[in-house]
Amino acid sequence: MWSPLSKILECIGRFRFPFLRLRAHVPFGRSDIPDARGTADWKQFLDGRALSRVWGPHAHGPWQPFHCLTLFVSIDYLKHIVAGPCEADPWPVRAFRAPEWIRSDTMLVVDLPGPKTAALGAALAVSGCDLVCTFNNWPHPKGLLSAEQILAALLRYASWLEEKRTAYPTAGPVAWLCDAGRLGARQGKPGEFDNRYYIEDGSMPGPNLLRKHGITKIVYLCGQPGDVKADLGVQLYAYQKEGFLIARALVSDEGALHNPKPLILPTPSFSTMGFFHSSAGGFGAPVPHPSSGG
């Protein structure tokens, strides 16, 4: 079912990581523990192509162009001797049962801390959802965000997805996987690597494409009530203006999704200033020291 090399993965070979020309020492997970299946099969996925393939959208579905490769590619530039899966489930995947309201007309936007999003994403995929990852930054020893911790969660569930993942023959349901910490809590300081990022317009499908594939409802999944993250607020507001039903469902720490409730979004405001695009694609760049010149 899952094509080993889709066309979009061909561009992995064109990525370059100019700020880490040698494999970087960025420890994540543990190299001496098993994955979610109790095996060492996670080692088969210490490869950008393999890891992206198993976490990416259905090879013959409509969502391939939106799957973000940046974080998957980065694993080829990190030292594997200090890499491995995370030790425990960041979210109780074994307790999860897909609720009946997740149907083929539903697009989910999962906006939890990265490792939790990966865990819930794995559970959704095994339950029949297609997946699109939006992890669009590079790990770095001095990174403002610990992107590598998401990699540890992706490794934990990779062989489970390889073995158990299913997908409906239709285009939905589909889950967009987002890291709720992507915007960061502050700007980077000189000497740090600022790998904060936001969900760009091209990361989300347009309304006509959604309608073409039968999507009429978009459910925002988060951990607690509150404002929608500003960058996603722009996207969801645009869908709302186009007539899509927008709802919010809370994700419990016990492994359940609460019933969605309608979400009326105010006019959003979000500035993209202060974020560092990488010359390799995605986001992440060293924060320069101020010039001493007068």
* Helix-strand makeup class: alpha/beta
Order of helices and strands: HHEHEHEEHEHEEE
| Count of DSSP H/I helices | 6
Number of extended strands: 8
Please give the radius of gyration in angstroms: 19 Å
State the low-pLDDT regions, or none. Answer: 1-16
List the helices and strands and how they pair.
Elements: H1 48-55, H2 70-74, E1 106-112, H3 114-126, E2 130-133, H4 147-164, E3 174-179, E4 193-194, H5 207-212, E5 217-222, H6 230-241, E6 245-250, E7 261-262, E8 285-286
Parallel strand pairs: 1-3, 1-5, 2-3, 5-6
Antiparallel strand pairs: 4-8, 6-7
Helix pairs in contact: 3-4
Features:
294 residues, single chain, two-stranded antiparallel ribbon, six-stranded mixed sheet, alpha/beta, 6 helices, 21% helix
Description:
The chain has 294 residues and is an alpha/beta fold. The protein has one domain (7-266, 275-286). It is 21% helix and 12% strand. The protein is built from 6 helices and 8 strands. The chain has a 6-stranded mixed β-sheet with strand order 2-3-1-5-6-7. Strands 4-8 form a two-stranded antiparallel sheet. Strand 5 (217-222), helix 6 and strand 6 (245-250) form a beta-alpha-beta unit. Helix 3 (114-126) runs parallel beside helix 4. The longest helix has 18 residues, at 147-164. It is globular and about 45 Å long.
